[in-house]
Design a protein that fits this description.
This protein has about 350 residues and is an alpha/beta fold. It has helices spanning about 15, 20-25, 45-55, 85-95, 110-115, 130-135, 155-165, 205-210, 220-225, 250-265, 280, 300-315, 330-340; strands spanning about 1-5, 30, 40-45, 65-70, 100-105, 120-125, 140, 170-175, 185-190, 195-200, 215-220, 245-250, 270-275, 290, 320-325, 345-349. α8 links the parallel β10 and β11 (about 215-220). It binds threonylcarbamoyladenylate and magnesium ion.
Length: about 350
């Protein structure tokens, strides 16, 4: 089942989503768009339904799922009392790409959703179709990104079908997502500290502005590894099939390095790919040359990244080199996902 809703007027949307919502209510698996990436949804209260998510994705069961809500009134039955700071962040960023880890109310959700943790990550997506579907379904919806585990997250309905056709009950198609990278996941330590478990659509700078007195830190790789705070971060993610290497340094040095590498690889008969910003794109030679847009607007790069990784796969390239970018704003999330896709292979010139 593919439900196309791109043409639907806002007031028709819930009607058009009745079947998709019905499928969720009956324990089905429905992929749907959000402002970040497409999610693979199931009724978060039903273990039978949530189990299907893990099977369809091939996802390790110690990796907890984010619960999506359409309305703040849904929160009370899902979580225990939480810091005032969380309320302030919800006021500022919901609906939006911010997942807040909160203490879970026992038996409100299937234990598979939390993977045995005492907490649950909750978010309210800023997307008309996601919100309409959640309202129509009337239940909290657990949804990881709608890709096979280890593949780049899907930013179009076609990406979802590439990975999951035949494994899910349906998909709501409302075109490409906006941000293009997943939500920011945070936990709160008391009233005055925020820890970023996964950088994403809401930037550190925006969090700091909304909570000027809070201290903000990012969990280190070692911390994420040791404590299952954000278990998802420890698995290989977003990886293209070709071997990706990131190249960091002065622009001239980066260009020269990538040049030498692609030339040598092509002489060995390998299919090559380059992922670069528009400013220098024309200077490269590769079998598959893809643009991240301009360096001056990293939102565009965030929007393009996952589709580009999939395009490299489709082109069958074996070696890929990518330029790095600033880690300001959305650049932090972008570099985080690129480093993961590269399995942390970063050349510093
Ligand atoms: O933008 C998004 O967040 C997308 C869309 C579909 O909403 N969803 C998404 O879900 O990216 P997923 O499952 O691919 O990533 C969820 C992340 C993982 O890194 C997971 O470990 C972390 O959130 N997470 C979930 N619950 C958690 C918890 N209770 N404590 C710490 N981390 C948690
Ligand atoms: Mg994911």
């Amino acid at each position: 089942n593919v439900w196309h809703v791109q043409q639907a007027a806002d007031d028709q949307l819930r009607e058009e989503l009745k079947e998709a919502a019905g499928s969720l209510k009956e324990g089905g698996l429905v992929a749907f768009p959000t402002e970040t990436v497409y999610g693979l949804g199931a009724d978060a209260r039903s273990t039978a339904a949530v189990e299907k998510i893990f099977t369809a994705k091939g996802r390790p069961s110690d990796n907890p799922l984010i619960v999506h809500i359409a309305d703040r009134t849904q929160l009370d039955e899902l979580v225990l009392p939480y810091p005032q700071l969380a309320k302030a962040l919800m006021d500022r960023f919901w609906p939006g790409p911010l997942t807040i880890v909160l203490p879970v109310r026992a038996s409100a959700l299937s234990p598979l959703v939390t993977a045995g943790l005492a907490t649950v990550g909750i978010r309210m997506p800023d997307h008309r179709t996601a919100l309409a579907l959640l309202r129509e379904a009337g239940c909290p919806v657990a949804a990881p990104s709608a890709n096979r585990s280890g593949r780049p997250s899907p930013t179009t309905a076609r990406h979802v079908l590439e990975d999951l056709e035949g494994r899910i009950d349906g998909i709501v198609d409302d075109g490409a997502t906006g941000v293009g990278l997943e939500s920011t996941v945070i936990e709160l330590i008391g009233e005055h500290a925020i820890r970023i478990l996964r950088p994403g659509g809401v930037t550190r700078e925006a969090l700091q502005q909304a909570a000027p007195r809070a201290s903000i830190d990012s969990a280190s790789a070692a911390e994420l590894e040791a404590v299952p705070r954000s278990p998802g971060m420890k698995y290989t993610h977003y990886a293209p099939q070709g071997e990706l290497e990131l190249v960091q340094g002065e622009p001239e040095a980066v260009t020269a390095y990538i040049h030498r590498q692609t030339r040598a690889a092509r002489q060995r008969g390998e299919l090559t790919g380059v992922l670069a910003f528009e400013e220098r794109l024309a200077g490269y030679e590769a079998d598959c040359l893809l643009s991240l847009g301009s360096e001056d607007g990293l939102e565009e790069a965030a929007h393009l990244l996952y589709a580009a990784l999939r395009d490299f796969d489709a082109a069958g390239v074996q070696r890929i080199w990518a330029e790095c970018c600033s880690e300001q704003g959305i650049g932090a999330a972008l570099m985080n996902r690129m480093a993961k896709a590269a399995g942390d292979r970063i050349v510093r010139l």
